[in-house]
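Lab manual, section 2.4: Encoding a predicted structure.

Procedure: take the sequence of the chain (376 residues), apply the prediction step described in section 2.3, and record the output as structure tokens. A sample record is shown.
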Amino acid sequence: MEPPTIIDLGLFAIVLTVLLGPFLIRKIEHNLEAFLFVMGVLAVTLSSFESHENLVRLYGENIPHVGWNMHLIMEAIEEPVIKGIVPAVLVAGLLFYYGRDKVQSAINALLKVVPLKILVFVMIVILGLSASIITAIIASLLLVELINAMPMERKTRVNVAIIACFSIGLGAVLTPVGEPLSTIAITKLQGDPYNASFFFLFNILAVYVIPGCVAMGLLGMVFTGKAAEVKQKVASASEETLKDVVIRAGKVYLFVMALLLLGSGMKIIIDKYILSIPPQIIYWVNMISAILDNATLTAAEVSPMMGMEQLQAVLMGLLISGGMLIPGNIPNIISAQKLSITSKEWAKLGVPLGLILMAVYFVWVFYIPFHIEFNL
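Recorded output:
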């Protein structure tokens, strides 16, 4: 492997800045969307200076779009809307704004007959498993409204939201409807030898995903223990205005655009340094999904030339690590926006939980011969 170029070093510096900036500088924490957008612009700009000779050595004659081009600009502008992310956030925000009282009444009625811990368990598991049908976006919007309606202290709300986002991030992969990662994976595997159909990812990943969603539900019950013993009604989050609903949709738009630019700008170092390493190592390297768009990494890494174990390892690594930090996936972004969760608060639980899950699934995928493939 050739030594890193100045461009490579600059891109690695951007990755480091994205990782550490929100934790070290408060202004970045409070303006995370704008910060990530600036880092995305810098990454794309820097990659634009990569020499043609280096690109030829890396890609041969089939050099992809690198750096700024009209296709990337239009994609960054259109994708947050075309993929339905921003419209869903805006429409659901308006529906919940006008229907919040009914949600609160329903939760209060349920709490009279169902313990709070059981309600949390059911919520986390059902939202996780249904995310592949209703999409991760709608599942996360439902999550924050339900959490806001439950009698929980702030710390409990934060922890339950983080755990539930791990569940939603896992469950959304089971069909190509759930999230962009699964859509891209199915598209890349449609031909031989896999001939991937609608339920392909369910067939190869459900054995890992379903227990993971149930485990997150059980963990959510543990973190709800103390909250269940406090007074039944805790002051809910401050009522938001219509202006807040619109501003949140705008922030999500900027967030998605920023992640797309970051992924595009990092394509060079992904292709140069990640794709050639063994699956056992790439599984752990995929923890960069905590700050980069996992759909971009899926597009770069997934190939029909991979064996089944490699596919499972790559996808599970991306799914789990996506829950570790706020930029990791859309449910995190929406929940953090709505519940005012800081990067430090998220990382305090998200990072250790993600590392534990990564370790458990690493052993399961690579060393435990327990694989069930469904045939739907």
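Check your result against the sample. The two ends are 43 Å apart (CA to CA).
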